[in-house]
């Protein structure tokens, strides 16, 4: 008798765990001599990158770093951070790419929460890492010093590297030399195995650790070039931090399509235009704040008209239609996406419709400012009534919560069962973002639940900023909301009332003092750019009415010349 059609079993010959690590192996085979990475005078081929990643994995393995281990990397967009996206999981360990804009206290918490076995740190940020490790050690009775590796960079002051080596750190290149470039690695036995850990603040007192798996990373990495129409010849500029949602999974995508990466330590409009002219950059990702800097760059820093069409993917905060219009006028083709750390980065896209081509540019920009429809690798996204979980009507006016379901939703938050229960209630991942659904099925965000402030594409918790402000001796009550910011899209605006015994004769000086006070308590981009002294509007039960404060902050107009 023959077998039923569904009784055929899985074999090693026809089933293996999905992982993006195979993309690197294939890139080295298909295009061994093609440039994989450029960074200043450094140039690596795909053969070089594969060998370097295997060396990294081999050296980690020699130090007993593997399954169950977490490796933290504190670095800007340099080749070592790209290599970490492959070398660390090839060793079986989990990558935690740390936001370099965080302060030492927060990084110390992250390292302790994840029990980082290794800390790789760029020489420019070694002092920050040292302070973070000190804080971790002081707060943990079971602190075990992690292996400390410093990443040198010829583009930086050499004294930074010398200092780190003098403090007992191992130099990254020396660490690689101890590894085997022919390291015989194996893919994960289970595609549910964790590949990365990233932290998002939300509105809770402590950051939440977002755990992602190999399967989701594979699917998202394959979805990116389909969504963007990328072939095997793109030149990709790293304007998006690789520490932000694993660079939206593009480290793995670029290996899949054998593209070339241009690393960029500091993101400035002049450097972006220069890379387009010098290296033929065809694609880059960026938060709207970067787009704003591009369209407002002085003429002497631009190269216009562009020598070719440059494709830009934007997400993080809804880009203003005016910015999208200006980008289009300068020759950039912007693809607008939306997502979260919990969904591997962008997971919806405002798919451009051919019929939009004949519309006025202003109308095109308005339509492109919507968050769109689900990614090709995401099974379900909807806007629902959070109480009934029923989809809202596609009328463009009924507000509901954006929810996700599919293979590119995180495994969960590390060591946080309560947050997981809330996030996955009713069989959906709850984004906390409020939106409407239009007749064509495209979603559009209208508000952000839980008062998240998005500055430069990074989330800021208003509650945590308020907690820091409450430590100021003059402050009696405080409420923090988002205020428009010309450079960053949004920045924190603090409304405060003062204690009765405080001298209120010079409110401007006091506001400046509060901002200075915050510099020792918060990451630079979390510091309020404006402080308003006065009574806070409240309900009859004493609750501060944040919606009124948000309206007031908007009426004040955007913060100008904001450097932080």
Characterise this structure:
This protein has about 575 residues and is α/β, with parallel strands linked by helices. The chain has three domains: about 20-215, Rossmann fold, CATH 3.40.50.980; about 265-450, Rossmann fold; about 455-555, ANL, C-terminal domain (GMP Synthetase, Chain A, domain 3). The chain is about 30% helix and about 25% strand. Strands 2-1-11-10-12-13-14-15-16 form a nine-stranded mixed sheet, sandwiched between helices. A five-stranded parallel sheet has the order 4-3-5-6-7, with helices on both faces. It has a four-stranded antiparallel sheet with strand order 17-18-20-21, with no helix packed on it. Helix 1 crosses helix 2 and helix 12 (about 290-295) packs across helix 13 (about 320-330). The longest helix is centred in the N-terminal third of the chain and has 17 residues, at about 45-60. The radius of gyration is 24 Å and the shape is globular.
How many domains comprise the coordinates?
3
Which fold name fills CATH's third level, the topology of the largest domain? Rossmann fold
Query: Could you estimate the helical fraction of the residues in percent?
Result: 25-40%
Main structural class = alpha/beta
Number of helices: 18
Low-confidence segments: none
Strand order of the largest sheet: 2-1-11-10-12-13-14-15-16
Shape: globular
Radius of gyration: 24 Å
Measured by DSSP, the beta-strand proportion falls in: 15-25%
CATH architecture of the largest domain: 3-Layer(aba) Sandwich
């Amino acid at each position: 008798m023959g077998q039923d059609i569904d009784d055929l079993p899985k074999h090693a010959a026809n089933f293996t765990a999905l992982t993006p690590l195979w993309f690197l192996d294939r890139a080295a085979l298909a295009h061994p001599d093609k440039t994989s990475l450029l960074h200043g005078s450094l140039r690596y081929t795909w053969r070089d990158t594969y060998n370097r990643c295997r060396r990294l994995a081999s050296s980690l393995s020699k130090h007993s770093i593997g399954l169950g281990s977490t490796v933290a990397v504190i670095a800007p967009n340099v080749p070592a951070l790209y290599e970490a996206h492959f070398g660390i999981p090839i060793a079986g360990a989990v990558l935690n790419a740390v936001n370099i804009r965080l302060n030492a206290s927060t990084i110390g918490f992250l390292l302790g929460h994840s029990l980082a076995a290794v800390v790789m740190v760029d020489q420019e940020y070694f002092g920050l890492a040292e302070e973070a490790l000190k804080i971790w050690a002081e707060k943990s009775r079971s602190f075990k010093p992690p292996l400390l590796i410093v990443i040198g960079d010829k583009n930086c002051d050499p004294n930074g590297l010398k200092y780190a080596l003098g403090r007992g750190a191992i130099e990254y290149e020396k660490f690689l030399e101890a590894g085997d470039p022919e390291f015989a690695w194996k893919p994960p036995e289970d595609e549910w195995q964790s590949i990365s850990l990233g932290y998002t603040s939300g509105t809770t007192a402590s950051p939440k650790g977002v755990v992602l798996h190999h399967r989701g990373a594979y699917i998202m990495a394959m979805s990116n070039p389909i969504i963007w129409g990328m072939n095997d010849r793109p030149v990709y500029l790293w304007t998006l931090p690789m520490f932000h949602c694993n660079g939206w999974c593009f480290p793995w995508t670029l290996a899949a399509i054998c593209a070339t990466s241009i690393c960029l330590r500091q993101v400035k409009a002049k450097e972006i235009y220069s890379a387009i002219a010098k290296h033929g950059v065809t694609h880059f990702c960026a938060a709207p704040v970067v787009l704003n800097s591009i369209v407002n760059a002085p003429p002497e820093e631009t190269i216009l008209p562009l020598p070719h069409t440059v494709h830009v993917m934007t997400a993080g905060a809804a880009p203003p239609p005016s910015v999208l219009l200006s980008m289009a006028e300068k020759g950039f083709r912007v693809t607008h996406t939306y997502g979260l750390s919990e969904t591997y980065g962008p997971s919806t896209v405002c798919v451009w419709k051919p019929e939009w081509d004949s519309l006025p540019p202003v109308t095109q920009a308005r339509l492109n400012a919507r968050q769109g429809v689900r990614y090709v690798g995401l099974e379900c996204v909807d806007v629902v009534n959070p109480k009934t979980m029923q989809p809202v009507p596609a009328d463009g006016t009924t507000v509901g919560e954006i929810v996700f379901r599919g293979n590119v939703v995180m495994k969960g938050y590390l060591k946080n069962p309560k947050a997981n229960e809330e996030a996955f209630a009713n069989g959906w991942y709850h984004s906390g973002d409020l939106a409407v659904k239009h007749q064509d099925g495209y979603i559009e965000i209208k508000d952000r639940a839980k008062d998240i402030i998005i500055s430069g594409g990074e989330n800021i918790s208003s509650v945590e900023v308020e907690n820091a402000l409450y430590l100021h001796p003059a402050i009696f009550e405080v409420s923090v909301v988002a205020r428009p910011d010309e450079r960053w899209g949004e920045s924190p605006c603090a409304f405060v009332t003062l204690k009765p015994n405080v001298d209120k004769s010079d409110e401007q000086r006091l506001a400046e003092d509060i901002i200075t006070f915050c510099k020792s308590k918060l990451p630079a981009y979390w510091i309020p750019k404006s402080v308003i002294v006065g009574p806070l509007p409240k309900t009859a039960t004493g609750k501060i009415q944040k919606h009124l404060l948000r309206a007031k902050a908007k009426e004040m107009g955007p913060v100008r010349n904001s450097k932080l």
